[in-house]
User: What shape does this take?
Amino acid sequence: MRLSRYFMPTLKETPSEAQIVSHRLMLRAGMVRQATAGIYSWLPLGFKVLKKIEQIVREEQDRAGAHELLMPTIQPADLWRESGRYDDYGKEMLRITDRHDRDMLFGPTNEELITDIFRFYVKSYKDVPQLLYHIQWKFRDEVRPRFGVMRGREFLMKDAYSFDIDYAASKHSYNKMFLAYLRTFERMGLKAIPMRADTGPIGGDLSHEFIILAETGESQVFCDKQWMEIDLAGDNVDYDSDLDPRVTELTNIYAATDEMHDPAACPVGEADLITARGIEVGHIFNFGTKYSAAMKAEVQTPDSSQVPVMMGSYGIGVSRLVGGIIEASHDDAGIVWPDQVAPFGAAVINLRQGDDKTDAACEDAYAKLKAAGVDPLYDDRNERAGGKFADMDLIGLPWQLIIGPRGVANGVVELKRRATGERQELSLDAALQQIIG
Ligand code: P5A
Assistant: This one.
């Protein structure tokens, strides 16, 4: 992409309404624009990151054997009356009346709708287990939307739902998602720690929140420092064969949110306990028959009796993750994207736009990066070098390939790694080699 043609409206001033660093950086980098409190438009740069995160989530759901579908944002109130949550959900639910005076709502979550789909089609134990998910916008009329996309009113969630014949099988589905989540967050360059958690309005008694540690986190959390060393990267997780031992091992390492942490009963000594703030990026629940019993989603067992199906639900805050990743990865100059979610793979910075030789060298580098599938952003604007450096540091692409007349005369370019600030002077070919890896 040529920056001169792109739509990336960066801001020089720090917006005063933004209280936390990720919100400030997202506004300054031209990633999002607030439409109204807690509701955002995703501008091209922000949208690219959102899509990258969504794709990692999707790939790991698919790998775990979940099937993607798409449910609507607007739901009929009657389904929620069946489950009993229509009144319980309170003011956080955005209620809508259509022209025929029918009660509708903008879905804050989808347990009811998926249960309705399931009960219509599935009647036999032979057709479970089943894992279904979608990635869809939700609306929750939060009292205090804040921190930009981290606590919005409209936000993008991946929500999966499991259906099983009995508790043991549903626990297996839960464990599958548990492992899939660890892998998902790791692929985004995040350390997300599963913590025993409260279930709130979703219900059930088994639940984990996946939390990344960050000073600006909304919740107080406690965990064994062993968590800092766990690294599943590169593991070829087989979701079925070695599932239970792995999960048991991991769930035995202490981690809990504030509501669940009891200092008197905590098994970890003070020296090994990390007390920190955290951001909840995912939350999984096993709630048994809470919805299936109320909504009569029953399946026939091998001995021909009818039982309500056992369910769980599994959420990831896809749009929240954009802010969460920035909270976890930034410096004074701006965002430092982990390679896997960066909006572009590398920046090409032309230090003397309009100088024939420099332009030609930049065009050459740009074409080669494109051909190698790096998806480069070429800063070909007619601007001072200082402004270009500041903008490129702000948007945080993993690599900067800096090309100016002096280097061109000597047959070298400068390569900067955004995360470390390390700079090297080398030939274009050697630089490309490092970027392409
Ligand atoms: C699980 C999937 C649920 O809604 N039902 C379907 C269950 N869980 S949850 O914990 O309430 O939400 C799942 C994840 O969504 C993100 N999230 C938010 N992101 C941005 N703004 C919000 N206001 C918001 N509320 C929830 C969180 O990442 C949460 O873990």
In short: Residues 9-335 form a domain with the BirA Bifunctional Protein; domain 2 fold (CATH 3.30.930.10). The chain has a mean pLDDT of 95.
